[in-house]
Amino acid sequence: MAFIGKIRENTLFVLIFIGLGIALFILMDIMSSNNQGGGTGALKMGEVGETSINRQEFETTLSAVYNGGDAYANRDALWNFYVNEAMVRQEAKAIGLGVSDTEMEDLQFGPNPSPVVRRNFANPQTGQVNRELLTNIQNYINNDDIQGGIDAGQLSPNFVPIWSYQSREVVAQRVQEKMAGLISKAMYAPTWMAQDRADAQFQTVNAALVKVPFDEILSSDINVADADVQAYLEDNRSLFTNKEETRVLSFVSFDVEATSADSAKIRESVMDIKNEWMETTQDRDSLFITGFNGTFNNVFYGRNALPADLADRLLTEMEVGEVYGPYLEGNAYKLAKLVDREVVADSVNTRHILISASTPEQFEAAEAKVDSLMGVLERSPGKWSTLAAEFSEDPGSKDEGGLYEGVTPGQFVKPFDDVIFRTGERGKLYSVRSQFGIHLVELLKRSNTASPRVKAGYIVEPILPSSDTEDSRLEDAQRFLTDNNNLDKLKSATSNSADLKVEQTGPLTINSFQIPAMGNNGSEIRDILCWAFSADVGDVSDRVYTFTDQQLFYENKHILVSVSEVIPEGLATVASVREELNPVVANRIKGQQLSERMAGKDLAAIAAEFSTNVDTVNNINLTLSSLPGGLGREPKVVAGIFGTSAQSMSAPIVGETGVYVVKPLGAPASGTSGSLPTARQQLHQTQRSQVTSQLLTAMRENLDLDDERADLDCR
Fold first, then answer.
1. pLDDT for 383-396, tens place per residue?
2. Which residue among 255, 284, 550, 610 has its CA within the 20 to 30 Å range from the CA of 475?
3. Buried b (16+ CB within 10 A) or exposed e, 463-479
4. 36 or 427, higher pLDDT
5. Where are the domains of the chain?
6. Which pLDDT tens digit goes with each residue over 676-707?
7. Model pTM?
8. Is CATH 3.10.50 what the domain over 244-256+465-568 is classified as, yes or no?
9. Architecture in CATH for domain 347-448
10. Cβ proximity of 145 and 62 under 8 Å
C-alpha cells in the first residue's frame, strides 16, 4: 500500500517513464523493420542522377523478364539496363529528344521494327520477324483485351511486364540512336585536318633501322623497385585509377574427388543397368535410355559420325540388342547398345519444294499447296525449276530448281531422310511433313555403293564422390580452418602441402558476381564478398564456403577465404599491380639500359655489337602505327622516322618490343596531296563509326551514380 501511495504522489514521473518506454519501443520497431528490409531506405536500390531505382519494381521486372541462365548475371545485366536507361532518359530530356506515340507504334509493329523487336520476335528457322505473332499482339492491345489473349493461351501470363520492359528497351535504344546520330553528324574534319591526313598519306619515307629486342637483357638481371612501378603508375594514371574500392582475396580450395570405393560402387550400379538394358526390347530402348539420362537419336549413323574407338564394334562385331561396357570415357562409366543396323546408299540426288509452316492452320494450307503443286508436276515434270523458284522457301535449293546432289544419310530431317534413303521410289513425288513445314520431294537417284549404318544408344554415369566423401572433405576443411585462422598461417600451412595451395583472385568489387578461379556459385560468391568488404587484411572467414558443380550438382570444392589486399578508390597501389606490371616495368628499365648502350653509335656498329641486322622499311607514312616485316605496332618508331632528318641517325627509341635506332633514307615528298575529299571522308568514317559503341561508356564516365545494391544484400 505504501508503494501505491508513492506512485500516486509522483504521477508526473510515472507518465514520463511510460512515455519514454513507448517511444523506445517504437524506435526499436522502426530499426528492426529497417534491418529486415522493410524500411523506405531498403526500397531504394540506387540512384542515377535524379532517378531513383526502386528495388521492388526491379525485382518484379527481373522475375518476369528472366527465366533462365545465371541469376546473378541476370541481375547485373538488368541493373546496367536501368542505369543506362535513366542516364539516357535524363540526357534526352535535357536536349529535347524523345519517342512519340506514333513513332513507338511504328517501332513495335511497323515495316521496319526496332532491333529490340527484331531480336525478340525472330523466327528461329528463317531469322525473319514473326509478323503473325506481332499482329496478334497488336490486335489484343488495340482491343484492350490483353487478359483475353492470356486466357486464350495466345499471350504469356507475364505478357504485361515483359511487354512493358521491351517497350522501355525500344525507347532507350531509339533515343541512343538519335543521340549517336546527332553526335556523329556534328563531327566534322576541317580543311586543315583533312589536309594534314592527305599529306601524311602522300608523303612516304624509306628508312633503315636496327632493333635490339628487350630480351637482349635477361629479366633475372633486372631489379624492379617499388619506385619504378610507382613512376609507371604516375605516367599512366588514367589506366590505373580505380573508380571504386576493390579487394583481392586469397583462398585455399579443398577439391572433392571420388575415391576408389566411390568408383567401384558406381561401376557396380552401371553393371546392374547393363543387365536390365540387355533384357529391354527395341521398342522400349528409347524410354529406357531416357530414364537414365542417356542419349539416343532415332537416326542411322555411319562410321564418321560414331566414336572412333567404337565404330568397328558397332558396325561389324556386335549383335543387334547387345550392350557393350561399362567402359571408361573421361571421368565416367559408359554403356553402348546397338539398337539397329542397316545398309543404305552412300548418297542420293533429290529435289524438293518446301512450304514453311509452324501452326496447324499453316500446315493445312501448306499441304493443300503441295497437293496442288504435285498435280502440276505430274502433268508437266519440266516445271520443277519454275515452281521451285516461285514457291519454295528453302534458300539452299530454290534457285537450283530444288535440286540437291550428293546428299548423305542424316543430312536432312528424319522424315525427308527416310523417304529418299529407304521408302521412296525413283521418279515418284511425295508429300513429307517435318517440323519446318511440308516438303514436296522427288527421289532422282541413289548411289550404287552402300555402307552399314547403325542406331546406337548410350548411357553415361559420371564418377562422382559420394555424400560420405563430400562430408569427409568438408571436415578436413573445417579442421584446417580451426588451426589456421589468419592469412599468414594459411600460407605457412600450405607451403609444404602436396594438394593444397593459396590462390589469389584479381581485384573484386562488392557487386562482383563471378570469381572464375572459384566457380560460378552466385550465392556463395555473394556471401564471400559481403564478408570480405567488412573484414581487414589478413582476416580469414570463419565459414567454409561450399561450391557445387553446375552441371553434375555435387559438392566439388570447399573453400577457405582471406582478404589479402584492400585497393582504395583512386590511383592503384604498387602492391596491387606489381605482379601485373612487373614485366612491363622491367622492359622499361631494359629500354633505358639499352638506350644508353646504343646512344651515339651508327646502325652497323649497333648491329655488330648486338648480333642483329640492319633492316629497311619502305613506304612509311604518318598514318601508320605498325611497321612492315613483322616488326608490329610501333607508333613511336614511325614518329621517330619522320622526326629525324634525312640520312641522319635518330636517338634510341624505346618501342613496344625493343629499342630502335632509325635512319631516314630520304626526305618526304614536298607539296600537298590532291586527295583532300578522300582524306576527309576517311576521318569522318573513322570517328563516326565509334560513336555508337562508345556513347554509353563516355556518358558513364561522369555519371552521378549511387549504387546501393549491396546495402541490403549484405545485411
1. 999 999 999 999 88
2. 550
3. bbbeeebbeebbeebee
4. 427
5. 2-36, 51-185, 204-239+582-664, 244-256+465-568, 260-344, 347-448
6. 888 899 899 988 888 988 999 999 988 999 99
7. 0.75
8. yes
9. Roll (3.10)
10. no
